[in-house]
Design a protein that fits this description.
heterodimer, A: 218 residues, mainly alpha, MetI-like fold, B: Rossmann fold, 7 helices
């Protein structure tokens, strides 16, 4: 029985792994840089800009990601004027990127605020431009400060990828469910649970490496 | 005359910090500004280093106007000129504000490299020279947190000197120092002044001011009195 389960689960899980890791990687690569921009806009002195980004973040953090996925796939094409029928893959990436950018942006905003104003002033007196100051003086220090919080979100993201089932996409958890239904067995869930743990273990190692890379100064 | 301040006024809201202040500083002169806390010493320093904008009056540094009176309005220098003026006046912050993620060499080279003042090689040898004269040899690869307070202060001085300023300002330079490092900093300041750099020091340390200053400006109730030493 268990061999039958595994024989069905392994190929399906491998296919599902592509979805899980694909959504994970694309979301991370797109939302992290985007979040820095959004954080800066949120902190802008322009009231309209900061209000708009504030509302965006409120909506993204105030509604379930599951609902956002459903809205973008099933609901968005009905919106007058701007509505567009996104494909399943497009809808998944858009929803994840929009959602995670909002969370990351708030983390970066906190990180940017935590930098002593003296760093800006020293840069100004030394004649550094605003952009140069942000990229070379502020941002490296922000990244050090926010790494633990970013790490938390990164791990949450791995598990959130399981939400793609709502749009009919087959990730590793969906594989477990299918096999479980065929054999009336619970063990597929255990196996997939272990897969999640392995992914998270690897990520934890990588995150620790990055954090310790920034330990060279205090 | 390297710095000329005329009729300078500054308020925060209804709170007038100083009013109609005028003074000048010559090449190589050491001027101490003292007064009780809250008398606007630091605000004055921040106006000179363009971290704060004044409301009225003019500031002239090395024959360039940072700001001047124009039909009862204050007019600040344009962006390019401002950049040039900023390089003429350096500031050593009370808590130094070194860049913690950069080593000492990088701290020194960051601004001149960005401003493209010189070739990388020349900038580097200038930095090495400064570190040597400030007794910081061998600290090039250290990070600020690895240095003592006095050493960090000397790095901050070196960093400001990298841009060859005509005027160097100090905000409470003795506040975090013990007697020995205090002696060292007054030696360094005298050395810099002998090199022709005008020095402006904000301090509430009267003994230090008496020892080092050529002139002392006392701020009280938004006005100043000047005494020659």
């Amino acid at each position: 029985m268990e061999t039958k389960v595994l024989r069905m689960l392994v190929p399906m899980a491998l296919e599902g792994l592509k979805v899980t890791l694909g959504v994970f990687a694309i979301t991370l690569i797109v939302s992290l840089p985007l979040a820095i921009v959004v954080a800066k806009l949120r902190m802008s002195n322009n009231k309209i800009t900061s209000k708009i980004t504030g509302t965006y973040i409120y909506i993204m953090r105030g509604t379930p990601l599951l609902l956002q996925l459903m809205f973008i796939f099933f609901g968005f094409y009905r919106v007058p004027y701007i509505g567009y029928p996104f494909s399943r893959e497009q809808a998944i990436i858009i929803a994840f990127v929009l959602n995670y950018t909002a969370y990351f942006a708030e983390i970066f905003r906190g990180g940017i605020n935590s930098i002593d104003v003296g760093q800006h002033e020293a840069s100004l007196v030394l004649g550094l431009s605003k952009i140069h100051t942000f990229m070379k003086i502020i941002l490296p220090q922000v990244i050090k400060n926010v790494m633990p919080s970013i790490g938390n979100e990164v791990i949450t993201l791995v598990k959130d990828t399981s939400l793609v089932y709502i749009l009919g996409s087959s990730d590793i958890l969906k594989a477990a469910r299918s096999v479980s239904n065929v054999y009336a067995a619970f063990s597929p869930y255990i196996y997939i649970g272990i897969v999640y743990l392995v992914i998270v273990a690897v990520l934890t190692k990588i995150l620790d490496k990055i954090e310790s890379k920034y330990n060279y100064y205090r | 005359m390297v710095l000329l301040v005329e009729n300078l006024s500054k308020s925060f809201g209804n709170n007038e910090v100083f009013h109609d202040i005028s003074f000048s500083v010559n090449i190589g002169e050491i001027v101490c500004i003292r007064g009780k806390s809250g008398e606007g010493k630091t605000t004055l320093l921040r106006c000179l280093t363009s971290l704060e904008t004044a409301d009225k009056g003019s500031i002239k540094i090395n024959n360039m106007y940072l700001c001047k009176e124009d039909n009862n309005n204050i007019k600040y220098a344009q962006k390019n000129e401002l950049q040039a003026i900023r390089q003429e006046i350096g500031l050593v912050f009370q808590n130094f504000n070194l860049f913690p993620h950069m080593n000492i060499m990088e701290n020194l080279m960051e601004a001149p490299l960005f401003l493209k003042n010189d070739t990388r090689e020349n900038i580097k040898s200038r930095a090495e020279e400064l570190l040597k004269s400030l007794e910081l040899e061998g600290k090039e690869d250290s990070y600020p947190f690895q240095l003592s307070g006095g050493q960090q202060q000397r790095v901050a001085i070196a960093r400001a000197c990298m841009l060859n300023p005509s005027v160097l300002c100090f905000d409470e330079p003795t506040s975090a120092l013990d007697d020995q490092t205090r002696g060292q900093i007054s030696k360094i300041i005298k050395y810099l002044s002998s090199e022709g750099i005008a020095i402006i020091i904000v301090t509430h340390d009267n003994a230090f001011a008496d020892e080092i200053a050529h002139r002392i400006i006392t701020m009280k109730d938004g006005k100043i009195t000047i005494e020659e030493q």
